[in-house]
Amino acid sequence: MTRPAYKRILLKLSGEVFGGQRKYGIDLELLKVLAEEIKRVWKLKVDVAIVVGGGNIFRGVAGAVRGIDRATGDYMGMLATAINSLALQDTLEKIGVASRVQSAIEMRAIAETFVRRRAMRHMEKGRVVILAAGTGNPYFSTDTTAALRAAELDCDVIIKATKVGGVYDKDPVLYKDAKRFKKITHMELIQRRLLVMDSTAASLCMENKKPIVVLDLTKPGNILGAVLGKEVGTLVYSK
Question: Which residues of 173-198 are buried (b: 16+ CB within 10 A; e: fewer)?
């Protein structure tokens, strides 16, 4: 049996991933493919925690909320992550993957409230833990949530699944000559102001020595490859 390189991972999924090609709403077919990718990792007895974004829902109504207070807008975004979390949980459980949604904002009718020890116990029992509502506070991104939860839950690595192949020296969508880094330190990421992860999240990861693997989610097997320690995407590490 293939041995994973990591015992416990934090998977960070942007909201746009849930929207598929349209980048808004929820693409159920893509969600099924994503769930199967997660199942392949879960079957290796790897503990899996997932932080999801809400951009596919919240950005779709962003034009209608201009003028709304920033904190209120952030809370609206947190509620969007709860919708994505429930959709992912339902899809995972339909293919036999036990999961729990934990929310940083109390909403007992649909999710458990986030409790660190309970989340760790779920993973120890083989359940995927899906973490909704960010940190529960405005002004913090879901990238920062991922960095915080990875430290709290003693995860070995953060796998940031995006729609590009890793960390580039400039935007690969706009510049065809953009070069991908195979490895880069947290400090270089911050100093170069590379926007794959905000500076607060990158600083938290650097302080807690949490490596980050940035990879292309659209390529089948990339998440599993990263968990197995293969060279996939870009590794962000501490010296």
Answer: eeeeeeeebeebbbeebbeeebebbb
Burial 10-44 (b: 16+ CB within 10 A, else e): bbbbbbbbbbbeebbebbeebbeebbebbbebbeb
Rounded Cα gap, residues 144 and 139, in angstroms: 10
Q: Contact 225/170 with Cβ under 8 angstroms?
A: no
How does pLDDT run across 87-105, given as a tens digit for each residue?
999 999 999 999 999 999 9
- 188 Cβ contact list (under 8 Å, min separation 6): none
**Architecture of the structural domain at 8-237:** 3-Layer(aba) Sandwich (3.40)
CA quadruple 93, 97, 98, 99: dihedral sign = negative
Q: What are phi and psi of 234, to 5 degrees?
A: -125, 135
Rg of the chain, C-alpha, whole Å: 17
3-class DSSP state of 73: helix
- Of 25-34, 53-62, 203-212, give the lowest mean pLDDT range: 53-62
pLDDT of the residue at 60: 46
Task: Determine the Cα angle at 226 with ends 205 and 55, to 5°.
Answer: 60
What ranges do the domains of the chain cover?
8-237
